[in-house]
Amino acid sequence: MRLEISLSKEKFKSLKGRDVEALIEGNLSRVEETLKAEREDLLRERVSKLEEKLREMEGEIEELREFYEKALRDKEFMMGERDRLRKENEELRKAVEERKRELEKVHGS
Prior knowledge:
Blueprint: H1 9-15, H2 20-108
Coiled coil: 32-109
Keywords: Coiled coil
């Protein structure tokens, strides 16, 4: 594995003559903790965004549920109205037929 580190001239000069590998190994645990903390922050942010999206989706689902329930109520109402109108139409048709027969009797006699 290859690792590249960029340093300013001043920092490079201050490290001259020192055991760089020991410095890196000595600071490795701090770097790991920093990376772990940054990753946890990133994950918390993602979780927060996902939770917000979930709440939005739950709201949309609730709106769809209400729309669907209203549509079902409207359908039931319309089917009831259709049945009522069919019966009314049948009764009117019978009344018209009855009236027609009565008029035929009167005019036919």
